[in-house]
Write a structure and sequence with these properties.
With 427 residues, the chain is an alpha/beta fold. It is built from 15 helices and 14 strands. The structure holds ligand KE4.
């Protein structure tokens, strides 16, 4: 079937919404073509406005880890809606989800819910600055932590996709407070800290980077970050907005056995509804208003619907065998892609972290953002469009992670690999 309806909707949307989308990476700008307008989704599939079905590996950029319209989540939401959608007052649901999050992330003594990952990292940095009395931050080139001013410096994800890693509109004074280090290069961090031993409030890093594509930390890198931050009295913020619950029940920090001072979460803990969270050591968190002087607030923070969807999602993820299944499916897919690439002599590297993966079109290992930027973006676009034609919906950017859900069945993987085989032909 064609995409006439999507095209018509996009034309209309472009007149009303900048670029026709409410988040830039959705516009398919980097891969050419026009975005599909999605009408509904179920399990591993999404359906566009023209009725075409696709096996979905975007999963709303991570939240839909159970698959779309999971019955238990949907039932729980239906019940919750009947009781009211928002009260602007505390509810038992916030206490319940906070309990689940703190149980899954023992490095956190307390947690505060917000409405997005951006709010979570922005607030965590404010708290770290207040706690240390310092104002510089260290992030890593190619990592993306949402769109707050100080973090849109050499940022990944959509900013890298559109070639806007340093967005206009960020005052030089703010940009000047952000240092960018090189991921997987501890000496680049050490150099900054040695030059400014009393000036850095925090280091923020993605638990398992996915916003330059999936890039694995080298053995000892995260541990080294922990040692350096401790030595210089710097708050170690692990941004697990994307990696949280994607590698195991908990965070990448559980896999590396690292105890960050603060953690940011989002996506999965809201089960597809707007959510974010930041938490950490109690001595830091209790500086937050109203227990302390650091202000942060939100009309819809802890929204009952987001809480219910999050509670149901985490309760499903807790079940025995979840991660064996999730990672087993991801490995089946990634191993299959590697086999096809070899057979069809396509130069690519398949990077995976738990239930996240990226096919990099390069023959070199991708250890950091500079490596990722050397990928053949034209080849990626051809692959993306061919896969879409083959009924497989991938993230429309080389600088993104793709996501596998518990709803992806063996038959989906077989169909996906058939599409990969066709798309790699003559690539
Ligand atoms: P949000 O503000 O988009 O909820 O979260 C920001 C954020 C923070 N930290 C990490 C590690 C993230 O990956 C994100 C957001 N991820 C992108 C996908 N790469 C969201 C998709 C989009 O921007 O449309």
């Amino acid at each position: 079937m064609g995409t006439a309806r999507s095209q018509k909707l996009f034309k209309k949307a472009e007149k009303l919404i900048p670029g026709g989308v409410n988040s830039p990476v959705r516009a398919f700008k980097a891969v050419g073509g026009r975005p599909l307008f999605i009408k509904r989704a179920k399990g591993s599939r999404i359906y566009d406005a023209d009725g075409n079905a696709y096996i979905d590996y975007v999963g709303s950029w991570g939240p839909m880890i159970l698959g779309h319209t999971d019955t238990r989540v949907t039932q729980a939401l239906k019940k919750a809606v009947e009781k009211g959608t928002s009260f602007g007052a505390p509810t038992e649901l916030e206490v319940e989800l906070a309990g689940l999050v703190l149980e899954a992330f023992p490095s956190m003594g307390m947690v505060r819910f917000v409405n997005s990952g951006t709010e979570a990292t922005m607030s965590a940095i404010r708290l770290a600055r207040a706690y240390t009395g310092r104002d510089k931050i260290i992030k890593f080139e190619g990592c993306y932590h949402g769109h707050s001013d100080g973090l849109l410096i050499k940022a990944g994800s959509g900013a890298a996709t559109l070639g806007l890693p340093d967005s206009p509109g960020v005052p030089a004074e703010i940009a000047g407070k952000t240092h960018n280090a090189v991921f997987n290069d501890l000496s680049s961090v050490r150099k900054i800290l040695e030059k400014d031993p009393e000036g850095v409030a925090c280091v923020i890093v993605e638990g398992a980077p996915g916003n330059m594509g999936v890039v694995r930390p080298k053995a000892g890198f995260m541990e080294g970050l922990r040692v350096l931050t401790r030595r210089y009295g710097v708050v170690f913020i692990m941004d697990e907005v994307m990696s949280g619950f994607r590698l195991c029940y908990g965070g990448a920090q559980k896999v590396y056995k690292i105890e960050p001072d603060m953690t940011c979460l989002g996506k999965v803990i809201g089960g597809g509804l707007p959510v974010g969270a930041f938490g950490g050591k109690t001595e830091i968190m209790e500086k937050l208003a109203p227990s302390g002087p650091v202000y942060q607030a939100g009309t819809l923070s802890g929204n009952p619907l987001a809480m219910v969807a999050g509670i149901e999602t985490l309760n499903q993820l807790k079940k025995k065998g979840t991660y064996e299944k999730l990672i087993g499916t991801t490995d089946m897919l990634c191993d299959g892609v590697e086999e096809i690439a070899k057979r069809r002599s396509v130069q690519c590297r398949v990077a995976r972290a738990g239930s996240m993966f990226t096919v990099f079109f390069t023959n070199r290992q991708v250890k950091n953002y500079q490596d990722a930027k050397k990928c053949d973006l034209e080849k990626f676009s051809k692959y993306f469009l061919r896969m879409l034609k083959g009924g497989v919906y991938l993230p429309p950017s080389q600088f993104e992670a793709a996501f596998v859900s518990l709803a992806h069945a063996r038959a989906d993987i077989t169909k996906t690999l058939e599409a990969v085989d066709r798309s790699f032909k003559g690539l």
